[in-house]
Structures are given as structure tokens and as C-alpha cells.
Design brief:
Length: 183
């Protein structure tokens, strides 16, 4: 095989790869849009039920189509924990993002006598590190009173969101809030 044949074959292989890569780049947004299609809406989500459960932690996660905020509750109650999640249309300039998602859970972050606090992040203004997230910009811990614990989550924009409860681990329960990366 001559040097010219090797150069030609290399050129053909390179051109084939370029077309394949270009095809992937061109079709990827369409595939992403189909896979990440959500129909959640941005209206308030609520359930009612005050329990003896207590908030014991929060965490966040990044997924392909949404960012997730999880509130962990201990397992001392048989009832489902209530929540109210909504976009706050009031001007809250101290929270980063184009919109603010308010989250109230009908469970305290302390025992009934306030003698034992079950959740209290070291920095209320940065309750979780969400740097690098596509949708979340800041998580602020509002506080807890007798039967209500709240957060304000700065998000990139007013985007679709969903809220649901999961049982476990053990007798515990979780309140899950997903906020889509886009409409």
C-alpha cells in the first residue's frame, strides 16, 4: 500500500467520523427534548396533614432533566406529612435566581419541647451547596416553628415543578421537589 493510499484511507475515515459526530450533535437536542419533556406546570402543589414527624435533613441532586431537592423526615408518625410548594411572586432580591420557590413542610425541625433540634444547617443562607446545578441557584433555610419548617430555593426561572412523598428508608419519609431544567 502506497503512502497516497494510506492518506486517502485516513481522509475517508476522518470524513466519516466528522459526519457521524456532526450528525450526533445535530440530533442530540431533539433527543434531549423528547427525553426531558415534562408536563408538571408551575402552579402551587399542596397536601394537608400535620404529623409528629420531624425534619432531620435536606439534600439536593442533579438529574438529566431536573434538579431535585429532598427533605428527610424521621419515622415516628403513621400519617403522611403535608406540604405547600409554590413560586413566590414577591420581590426577594437577596435570593439568587430569576424566581423563588417557597417550600413549607408541615413538620417541625425539633422535638415538641424545642429541647432537641433535629435540623439546623450551619449557614441558613446557604443551607446546601448547589453551585453547578442547572436550575437551582441557592437554598435558604427559613426556619421552623411549632409545626412548620420552610425553605426558599432560588431557581434560574419559573420552571415546571412536581412534588411527591416517598416512604423510607425504614419508617422515615421524604418530600421530593423536582424542578425541570426547561419547559
Amino acid at each position: 500500500m502506497s503512502c497516497i493510499d494510506i492518506v486517502r484511507r485516513t481522509a475517508v475515515i476522518a470524513a466519516t467520523l466528522a459526519v457521524t459526530i456532526a450528525g450526533t450533535v445535530i440530533t442530540a437536542p431533539a433527543a434531549y427534548a423528547a427525553a426531558c419533556s415534562v408536563h408538571w406546570g408551575s402552579s402551587a402543589k399542596s397536601t394537608q396533614s400535620i404529623t409528629d414527624r420531624q425534619v432531620v435533613g435536606v439534600r439536593a441532586g442533579r438529574h438529566k432533566c431536573y434538579d431535585r431537592f429532598v427533605i428527610d423526615l424521621n419515622g415516628r408518625a403513621a400519617k403522611k406529612t403535608g406540604y405547600h410548594v409554590w413560586y413566590d411572586d414577591q420581590d426577594l432580591p437577596s435570593i439568587r435566581g430569576g424566581a423563588v420557590l417557597e417550600i413549607d413542610v408541615q413538620a417541625p425541625a425539633h422535638d415538641g419541647t424545642y429541647a432537641h433540634v433535629t435540623y439546623d444547617p450551619p449557614n441558613h443562607g446557604e443551607a446546601l451547596d448547589v453551585s453547578g446545578y442547572k436550575t437551582f441557584r441557592q437554598v435558604v433555610y427559613i426556619g421552623s416553628d411549632d409545626a412548620l419548617t420552610g425553605w426558599a430555593v432560588g431557581v434560574r426561572a419559573r420552571l415546571p415543578m412536581r412534588v411527591f412523598r416517598l416512604d423510607g428508608p425504614g419508617n422515615g419519609q421524604r418530600i421530593v421537589i423536582d424542578v425541570a431544567h426547561r419547559w
